[in-house]
Structures are given as C-alpha cells and as structure tokens.
Design brief:
CATH topology of the largest domain in chain A: Rossmann fold
Distance between the termini of chain A: 76 Å
CATH class of the largest domain in chain A: Alpha Beta
Radius of gyration of chain A: 25 Å
CATH architecture of the largest domain in chain A: 3-Layer(aba) Sandwich
Largest interface: A-B, 59 and 58 residues
Low-confidence stretches of chain A: none
Order of helices and strands of chain A: HHHHEHEHEHEEHEHEHEHEEHEE
Number of strands of chain A: 12
Oligomer: homodimer
Largest sheet of chain A: 6 strands, parallel
Number of helices of chain A: 12
Mean pLDDT of chain A: 92
Number of domains of chain A: 3
Strand content of chain A: 15-25%
Structural class of chain A: alpha/beta
Helix content of chain A: 40-55%
CATH superfamily of the largest domain in chain A: Response regulator
Amino acid sequence: MERRPRVRMIEVARAAGVSHSTASRALNGSGKVSEAARQAVERAARDLGYVRDLRAADLASSRAATVGLLIRAAERPFYGELAARVQAHTEQRDYDLLTVSGGDDLDHQIRALETLLGHGAGGILIASGRAAAEAIEYASSFVPTVTVGVGLVRPGIDAVDIAVESEQELAEAVAEAGHKHVAVTASSNRLAYALHSRTANFLTSLVLADVRTTIVPSRADGDERLIKGLRSALDAGVTAVMAGEDLTAVRVIEQLVEWGLRCPEDVSVTGFDGAGAYRSPLLGLTTVAQPVEDMTGAAVDLLQTRMAGGRVDTAGLRFPGQLVRGRTLGPPPDLGGA
Amino acid sequence: MERRPRVRMIEVARAAGVSHSTASRALNGSGKVSEAARQAVERAARDLGYVRDLRAADLASSRAATVGLLIRAAERPFYGELAARVQAHTEQRDYDLLTVSGGDDLDHQIRALETLLGHGAGGILIASGRAAAEAIEYASSFVPTVTVGVGLVRPGIDAVDIAVESEQELAEAVAEAGHKHVAVTASSNRLAYALHSRTANFLTSLVLADVRTTIVPSRADGDERLIKGLRSALDAGVTAVMAGEDLTAVRVIEQLVEWGLRCPEDVSVTGFDGAGAYRSPLLGLTTVAQPVEDMTGAAVDLLQTRMAGGRVDTAGLRFPGQLVRGRTLGPPPDLGGA
DNA sequence: TTGTAGGCGTTATCAA
DNA sequence: TTGATAACGCCTACAA
C-alpha cells in the first residue's frame, strides 16, 4: 500500500496561490477572506487530500476543542451506552472526543487522565463507578471535570447521577411484592462509591418498609465470596436478592439455577443499570434502566459551560431512571406450611 | 474549583536548575543525562505536577505513538468488548489509543477518520461491520490500517476476521438439528460486508446440507421489513431463523413470542457475536462467540509491525469462534400429522 | 483583505 | 553531559 505524503497547510496555500495565513483563515472560517481565496484554498485542500493537524492547531491556538472521557470498562453495556451517548453529544457540539477506559485502581486512573490531559483535553468527563476521589480531584485540578454516575458528590465538582428515588422505587417494589427478608449485594471495593450509595439507598428503603436485610459481598472478579454469601443468606431465609448491577444479578440467577432454585418462584432477583440486552423482555430481568441519555446530555452541557468559563450553580444533577418490571421479581414462596 | 496553571517543561527545567533540553532528555529517558540532573528534574516535575503535552511532543518528534480505533457503535456489546480488548493491547505496547465510534455512512466515517488522523494517529484500526470500502482505503492511504471483523478483504489491506468455518459450523448445527427450510437474515445496507459474507456462508452451508433457504431482510432500524419478511417466511414453512447478529436474533424471538410462537419448540433461532450478556446461559441463545481476544491481539500486533515499517505477508488472518449451544436451537416441530 | 513574524510546548541537532 | 538553536504544523496579532 502506498501512502500519500501528509500534506501541510503551507502546501495547500501554495497550490492556492496564497499565504499560509490566508489558507488558515479560509480553512477554519475565521476572519475575513475573499470569496475567491476561500474557494481556491478549499479546492486545493480537497485536491491534495489535506487533513488538518489538530495537535498543531490546538497547540497554536491554545484552545480546548477536545473533551476527554474516562470510562470504567468499555465492555460493559452500561458504559458502552454511556460512551456512545457522550460521543453523540460532544460531536453535536463540535468537540472532539478522546476516550480511555481506565482501570479499577487509582494508578491506572491517573495514567489515563494524564493521557487525556496530554492530548489536550480541555474538559474531562469521568464515568466510572469506581473512580477514586483522588483521581477526580486530580482531573479537576487541571480542567473542568464532570462526573457521571459516579455517585460521589464532592463540593466544587459537578456530578450527574440517577435520582435516589429510582433506587428507592426498586426497593419498594421488592417490599411490596411481599418479601420480608432481602439480601443486598455490596461491593468490597473501597472505590465503588456508586455501588455503595446504591446499596445504602436499597437498605434504607427496605428498612423503612420493615423488611429484614442481609448483606452479600460482591466482587468484580472472583465469585467465591458472592456465592458463599449468597448461600448463607438463603439459609438465613432470604427470599429476594437485590444486586447492585445487572451483571451481578445475572450471576446470582445463574448460581440459583445451578442450585436447582427457580427465579422468581423460589428466589426473586433484581438488577440495576438496564443497559442493552439486560433490559430485554426476553431476559426478563427486573431492573432499573438508568437515564443515560439525560445524564450524558446534562453532563456535556455542564462541561461545555464550565469550559467556556461560565458559572453554574449545581451541587449535583439527578435524573429519574425507569423501573423495568421483568419476571425475576415475584412474591416470596409461601412458607405457610412450615 | 481553582485550577492549577498548566506547568510547562521549561518551568520544570528552571526549578531543577537545568536547561529545557536536559529536562526533556531526563523526562523521556533518552540520551545521556547525569544522575544528579535526572533526579533534580524528576523531583521538580513531581513537585510542580507536570504533565507532558503529548501534542507538542508528537509534533516535535514526528513520531507516531498513537493508534486510532474506529468502531461502529460503542453501545453494542460486541464492539464494546472489542474496544476494551484493543485498549488493553495498545496500552500494553505503550501506545495511546484514541477511539471514535463512526456512523453507518461514509460521510461520518470519513469525518471520524479525519479526527483520528488530525490527532496524530500513526495507525488505524477499523472495527465496523459497516465500514465503507472507501473509508478503509482513505485511512489506508495515510497510515497503516487494519480492519477487524469487517469481513471485507481488499488487496493490500490487512484484515483480521472470524474463520469461515465457524460460520459454517453454526449453519451445519442448524441442518443437523433436522431443519429442512431455514430463513437467513440479510442486511440491505450495502456497507454491511461482514453481514453479507456471513449470510453468504450460512446460505452456502445450508444448501450443501440440502436445506431449503429463504432470505429475510433485516435493518438496523425500522423492524417493519424484518417482521413482514419473517411472517411470510414462517408462512412458507420455515422452521428456523439464522440471524446475522445476536441483536437481530433477540428481536426475532421477541416477535415470535408476540405471535404466540415458542422458541425453539415452534421455531429455532440462532444469533452471532456472542458478546457479553448475549452468551449468558440465562438467555440461552444459540450463537457463535467471536474470538475477540485473538482478533484484537493479532490486529494490534499487525498494526504495530506496519507502523514500524515492517513487512508482513498476510492476506487476511482468521480465527475460529466458539459455538455456543443454547436453548434456542432445537429440532423442528413434527409436522407429520399435517 | 492579505502577508510577515512570532509563538504554542516539545524534541533533535550540533557545538561546546 | 550540557545548552543554544532550529524545527514540528499551525494560529494570530500586527502591519501593510
């Protein structure tokens, strides 16, 4: 494959018979350029297959036309959907988007942020249920930063999340189904703020509804503790499990099947996020679909305002999600005979 | 939030009492620097919170440390998984990764590629079942380009795909289940090469197995034609539907349910891709899991070699996928009584 | 409206 | 080993 040489603006200018400053002005539509010059430049650019070097352009103009997005794990439907929506919103506002998916630990996150910053991100979006507070503050110390679905509200840092009411609604639905003893999964990762606050909200709502609760540890990898905890929860009489994420819910159900238990006849299970296949009626998972579109739209809006130096007074925006009533939540098995 | 001013290398140099050239050498480990100077610079950099401006660095060194990834739709599990794996592989090789998810049409794709190129991508990975040949050639005319799962083999352009055998295997499984008349979905989008070749492979295998075939149109959006086609296929006596993607398979099953038909008792359905939730035993979809890890690893390897100017002799690499035997493929209903 | 000149933050060359 | 000095490709006063 023969590659065409990267043509520079000066070559376009020469071909058009103007100076490179005129070419620059013609190409980015700024300043006054005669119609003749503009057309000549545009034609030359097209003919030569010119592609502007955005690094040099940003550098020279010390402008910030790029937004950086840090997501937790691109392979997870929730984050994938989020990235796709953010992409759409930034594109619509003529920002370039650089996406990196950072790890679960602070080191990886800092390095990912450095990549973003190094490539000239003028604003950063952090969408990771496991973003470290230090990472968020690090980013924020350089450029405007908005968190999405992180569940961690820090003073001075914009945050967009799902409304607490949506988490409560799910817990109430479980209570209303008649369950009297419910297990809630809790991540042991100290960075999982989103999960922690979710767990806390579930627990609060359940307790208020006079439901007994049990905690089951969940971990991103290594199911051992989850399975063990699940087993003892069931032995303790739990009739429903509220998982913090759809992924965990599905793992729980699979484990139940393995034990010969049916869902929801024997045990009810709920998830959270409701992205992609997880909200398919075919799977029938009872979950809450996060308002990804609303959240990302607001986040990009907010970021744009901040990047433009505007002031906004928002301690934290919250949007309601949508309860998806699947088939995995039902009444508890009738134990009257016992 | 007060932002710290972006400190430049020259400031680090001053703080360390050396020239910026020395600071540069110390910071990127190139050239000879005295131990004393190196430590002073490193300390100054840390103290000042220095973050190197990669735009300027790349510009000055005219080096290509960045790989661009164009994926079709970040929200789709298959592409999400792909992006995540590519990220891991590039990171491991010390490349930065810029990801953009391009649209379904040529215009969007070209613009996305320009963004990548503009930010200094020295090599491009195209992972989109709908990448236009023009887009691929466009990218390839500038920098080394490797396609992943595009299903379009062009001379001179490296391609990594799933092995045809894996597609055949699925079709054979359908035939072996006893189906004598099978519908295959076919995208009407002229850019959907991957789907086209998949459809073709399905059809070929089915015909070789002496199975009658029918085509059902499928489209990314607007289910009308899919539903109508499905209806007439069923009326024509089809007992199994082979969809080109899991997403389509799920839609087909949902539609069957709506018509009061059971899967697989009345109609069998198979998918393709097997990413994330789609290969969960809970869903039970019969599909083929693409060898995403193998494909992305090979693609990044290949790209790295090309970027380094190396020569490789590969008309197209292919890796076998894994047949996932779910519950949506069964024997055809016994029509003996009719 | 146009061109000249200087600068954006790095790296690279070449004397010292 | 170090430090001037010149690129890298572009934008942008400023002057013409």
